[in-house]
TrEMBL record, chain A:
This is Cobalt ECF transporter T component CbiQ. Keywords: Cell membrane, Membrane, Transmembrane, Transmembrane helix. PANTHER family: SLL0384 PROTEIN. GO terms for biological process: cobalt ion transport. Signal peptide: none annotated. It comes from Streptomyces termitum. The chain crosses the membrane at residues 43-60, 72-89, 109-130, 231-252.
UniProtKB/TrEMBL annotation, chain B:
This is PDGLE domain-containing protein. Signal peptide: none annotated. GO terms for biological process: transition metal ion transport. It comes from Streptomyces termitum. The chain crosses the membrane at residues 7-28, 40-60, 72-97, 103-125, 137-164, 184-204, 247-266, 312-332.
Amino acid sequence: MGAGHAHRLYRRGDSPVHRLPPHTKLAAVLGFVLVVVTTPREAVWAFALYAALLAGVAARARVPAGFVLRRLAIEIPFVAFAVLMPFVVPGESTTVLGVSLSVPGLWGAWNVLAKGTLGVAASVLLAATTELRDLVLGLQRLGLPSLLVQIASFMIRYGDVITDEMRRMSVARRSRGFEARGVRHWGVLAKSAGALFIRSYERGERVHLAMVSRGYTGTMPLLDERPATRAQWAGALALPLAALPLCLFALLG
Amino acid sequence: MHVPDGFINAPVSAAAGVVAAGAVAVSLRGARKELDERAAPLAGLVAAFIFAVQMLNFPVAAGTSGHLLGGALAAVLVGPWTGVLCVAVVLLMQGVLFADGGLTALGVNITVMGVTTVVVAWAVFRGLRLVLPRTRGGVTAATFVAAAVSVPASATVFTLVYAVGGTTDVPVGKVLTAMLGVHVLIGVGEAVITALTVGAVLAVRPDLVHGARGLTAPLKLRVGGELVDAVPAAAPEPARAGSPKKLWAGGLLTALVLAGVVSFYASASPDGLEKVAADQGIDAKAEEHAAADSPLADYGVRGIGSARLSGGLAGVIGVTATLAVGTGAFWITRRRRAAGSGADAGADSGARV
């Protein structure tokens, strides 16, 4: 906790992208992903240009390519699904290296892979250049209900505490010779989960009481109200605005 | 499990986003009543708990392991309103922080994994609690069934969304069979873990389990050597919140219009299942196959003749079915609350500061 506390995806830096107000970045990423999703999948060149745009942002933010590529691993389950598509989708088939693959299935796999990868890469760049607290503040400025923002910020603030508590329980179990090997051990693990819930809930009550005793009334004061300047909005929205003509061209062409 | 960008087309993603936003808005009002101003810290901590417990691996057999999804667990432990909020916040943070699940697919993810699991689990749970004995065993058994049903229900809703707005032409029947086959198994695992976890909490702090309210014996005072019932705290009049009927009607109208009109647009897109079926002349085969499979697959296939109409129809039917389940759940809850003991009502509202 305290200063310098950041999440795993964050990459400290001081680039123009890091300095942009968080809500402009959130809006930009959302706009970009929407444009990507609307692009017809036959326009392969458009996706290549989108990737180039993201690479440009990454270079501007001084985020190395290896960092982004490693984080793309999160979409592996859906890659597996995409790889299956050419085999299960009916329709016109083609033969590649002696294996019969369906053409609509290949297009479907390409669609999911291209759009999914671009979406994940955009999100990774957002998370890599924005601190946790700023992200939540950004969501609040974009009009997320205040109660939801508070819940999210409490979850973030105590997420590591609860995860560490779980890790301590795991250390305690293992130091007593327990090793979960199969279904027979679910009872022990479930008791740990139950104990974790009780500890989390009771911690929540303590936190609430501590806050009430310090004057909490159900709303959090917003300390730094720094609206984004026109130039900052323009800088952030350059990404979706650069992508939009490509999408329109692909839709019409 | 998290749906990435580009898996579901843009109009249906937007419609799912509206459904998710509506569900979260209704849950915000509900949670305020459930938790008062404690909502933020408590729901935040419970969300952190759900987030953490999803990382707890349960070994299945050599090498493989599974983890909890948490929707049913949240519904039973903290109630449906707070449950929806917690799971939605967890999904939101996973999408924004860890790039887990696409930003445009956030609505789909919250609708499928958050709202569906919590609402279905809670409806099943309340239904079974009416039938089963009012004991700890009864609560655990109801939890088991609720969690077991919630996972395949979530898979079914995903298939429905996919049938209306999927970007690939995998036949709906096949998707449904594959999804249900896998998720019935996952559901059994989820059910065992959820029931064991709820059982563990019940054994230590039964008062914390929202689904087990009314199980705890009423407070007794020993007066002059004999036990007498404590006078329940006078329950203040519950605050009338706006006009729920208006909100209800507005939400229903929005959902129906969206489901009908937006899916119109969606199924009018040229690269749907219909296109392939018509092009490749597999209509007849597909019809046989799907009819043998399930009524849900029927919607996708009947669409070959009139794609637009059937797409819209499927959406409207989906909304109506969801509404029926949801209304059933709320109705049962309200009736139970009205019939609940005075002590129960006191516990509900006594915490208001």
